[in-house]
Amino acid sequence: MADIVVVGAGIAGLAAAERLLQQEPGADIVVLEGSSRVGGKLHVGELAGQQIDLGAEAVLARRPEAVGLIDQLGLTRESPAAVGASLWSRGALRTMPQGTLMGIPADASTLAGVLDADEVSRAAHEQPVHVEGDLSLGSLVEQALGPAVVDRLIEPLLGGVYAGDARKLSAQACLPAAYDAVAAGGTLTALAARAAHAPRSDAPVFASLAGGIGGLPIALAQHLAAKGVTIETGAMVREIAYITNGFELTVGSAREPRTLRAEAVVLAAPAAPTARLLRDIAPDSAQALAAIDYASMVLVSYAFERGAIPDDTSGFLVPPVEGRDIKASTFSSAKWPWLRTALPAYDVVRVSFGRAGEVHTLQRPDEELAAAGLADLAGALGRALPAPVDTRVQRWGGGLPQYAVGHLDRVAAIRAGLPAGLAVAGAAYDGVGIPACIASAHRASDQLLTRLAGTTQESEE
Ligand SMILES: Cc1cc2nc3c(=O)[nH]c(=O)nc-3n(C[C@H](O)[C@H](O)[C@H](O)COP(=O)(O)OP(=O)(O)OC[C@H]3O[C@@H](n4cnc5c(N)ncnc54)[C@H](O)[C@@H]3O)c2cc1C
User: Fold this and answer.
1) Domain check: are 106 and 191 in the same one?
2) Fewer beta carbons below 10 Å: N end or C end of the chain?
3) Between vectors from CA 170 to CA 10 and to CA 7, what angle results, nearest 5°?
């Protein structure tokens, strides 16, 4: 019997195994990954002969969890260039307004251009909002500052993180500071002003790795394997059942399943497979998990001969009201100096498709998506582009969980319904960003270790 099995080798599963190993160096830890590779949404692949990220591309460096892991593994952090992002709004690429908190302005006049004069005036006259329990962030901001702030700023910025619909995503889960400020009788504008004037370090906000942040789970898995953790790929967990003092997992193909026993289990898979695994042993948790929707996305990366793409912006976001196909573009060579150095003859750009509910996006063939991305890029830049020298289409079905209104209660219900010895970790719970996934893994591991220490003590008494 293994001491602990971790289901899923995305960043959350691997971080859970690392935490368990650190706290309990002698423990027998097994990580079971259903696909053929570790990393989940962190994934590198080749474009024009260079390894680049085909999934997540950076970690927030202002939180300690991800950069801590990078440093601990002895990897070198790469910082983005000091170029700002843009917004493709009202037919032109415009500098992203400065001093907003996820699109909430500290000073409405900074939104001129992105918003018209009437919309700026509405945003400048913030209305009090009475909140009683969770509501959507879109609804909160719309009542306070008007619909245009939601349509042209909150939507693209929130969409950049959640690929979601601001009028459905939970204010309490996605921007708790905004909810709390309004609930306490304050204003959103004052909150954004405080955030804009807070003392700030000069340290870069984001970090990545040369060759892509997708190298992080690979390095972590190698580190864990060297320390004796068993990591199996192609090991899909199909069922979990109770046994005395633990759990029995059914693993592998339906035709040739095998079983594995463990005292405790960390479930670090997305919500839908986790719900299936918990159906019999934790039905209430399974039901709450099944209510979490996911947005699917497609990323198309292009390499152009150098000079096709400007260097003075890191890319742009597109508000859904613009009616374009793409929702964002990253000018990767301009954003990441490591990539400019590694691939000096080319400009690498990526565009993303797919907001919550846009399932049809994933049904379009690769060539059609690649062509649509090129057309939108040319439209944003206001000129025709040369044919790319290389193109790569990466689909992310079920890419990002949607934190709908009531998310915090749903997560509390999921955790409350779990039997002792089982814990959950990953993007479905306390934040979709990589640092938040790592934090949820630490929380799950610590909870299980406390429980295992308790059982050992009981059996010794
Ligand atoms: C396109 C895209 C870009 C993103 N960009 C960023 C970014 O730049 N910065 C950032 O911070 N965040 C970003 N995110 C979000 C972040 O990458 C993810 O939220 C995070 O990586 C999720 O990690 P996870 O371990 O929770 O889940 P996953 O990465 O989904 O890993 C779960 C693993 O579980 C496995 N699994 C599923 N079912 C089973 C089973 N039954 N048995 C065994 N294994 C199973 C899966 O195969 C998978 O490997 C992005 C997300 C996407 C989709």
Assistant:
1) yes
2) C
3) 20
Same-domain check for residues 251 and 384: no
Within a domain: residue 346?
yes
Q: What is the number of alpha carbons within 13 Å of residue 409 lying toward its C-beta?
A: 9
C-alpha triplet 398, 403, 405: angle, nearest 5°: 140
pLDDT (tens digit per residue) in 329-341 = 999 999 999 999 9
Residue 461 pLDDT > 60? no
In tens, the pLDDT along 112-132 reads: 999 999 999 999 999 999 999
Angle at 258 between CA 256 and CA 264, to 5 degrees: 150
Task: Give the distance (Å) from ligand 1 centre to CA of residue 98.
Answer: 30
Ligand 1 atom nearest the C-alpha of 396 is: 53
Q: What is the pLDDT of residues 403-457, one digit of tens each?
A: 999 999 999 999 999 999 999 999 999 999 999 999 999 999 999 988 777 665 5
Above 60 in pLDDT, residue 149? yes
Are 302 and 392 part of one and the same domain? yes
Whether residue 130 is found in the same domain as residue 279 = no
Mean of the pLDDT values across residues 21-50? Answer: 97
For every residue of 294-349, DSSP letters joined together read EEEEEEEEEEEETTSS-SS-SEEE--GGG--S-SEEE-HHHH-HHHHHHSTTEEEE
